[in-house]
Amino acid sequence: MSFRIAPSILSANFAKLGEEVANVIASGADWVHFDVMDNHYVPNLTIGPLVCEAVRPCTTAPIDVHLMVKPVDRIVPDFAKAGANIITFHPDASDHVDRTLGLIRDCGCQAGLVFNPATPLNWMDYVMDKLDVVLIMSVNPGFGGQSFIPSALDKLREARAKIDAYTARTGRQILLEIDGGVKVDNIAEIARAGADTFVAGSAVFGAGKDSDPQRYNSVLADLRTALAGV
Ligand code: DX5
Ligand code: ZN
Fold first, then answer.
1. Contacts (Cβ under 8 Å, ≥6 apart) of 148
2. Which CATH code, of 3.30.9.10, 3.30.470.20, 3.20.20.70, 3.30.980.10, is assigned to 4-228?
3. Residue 179 catalytic?
4. Model confidence pLDDT, tens digit, residues 92-113
5. Stated pTM of the model
6. Which atom of ligand 1 is nearest to the CA of 37?
7. Is the CB–ligand 1 distance for residue 38 below 6 Å?
8. Distance between Cα 137 and ligand 2 center (Å)
């Protein structure tokens, strides 16, 4: 199994965002996780397509846009034009989940659904063909730095079984991503439950001294070492 690490720039230094994106990828991260919050679907307000467009030239790594907004469809083409590669959204934030998935793909991006801790996985059952990513929230969305909710492990196992059955039937891969409270000391257990793509915000951007341009090397190496033992 190959693993991807996607640092969430929610915990980066916003005054130096371009530099932070370049540094974290140079330190060995795979994707840039881009948290979009609207103070409506979630009780916080973050960054939009203009910021995505601004950081796009800072890296060639995939930008993984996690939409925590309602409504969803209006903003999807803007993020595609701003250089997003993957766009995920919460099914309970869209009136027409199948249509929104199709819209994301029509805009040239990979599409995914995000499941809050209490959101049932059966939202994915009739749209598997339109999914490239399934993202399981292991915190309630809205803030970085929260603790991992243990029931997310059972949910990962359930999602892994659905995805594996689908892949066995069709040959098509779907990534299984986890978001919230991922740290060096729990990433192996999370991987064993079935995740292959790991968002980590505070664990990565909280590491090291602000003055050290290489400060993300060691935490990313520690995350990889923990995964290598899985
Ligand atoms: C929460 C966001 C997460 C968050 C993760 O709503 O979707 O991506 O930044 O932060 P940590 O890793 O600190 O829990
Ligand atoms: Zn996120």
1. 138, 139, 180, 181, 182, 183, 186, 190
2. 3.20.20.70
3. yes
4. 999 999 999 999 999 999 999 9
5. 0.98
6. 6
7. no
8. 8
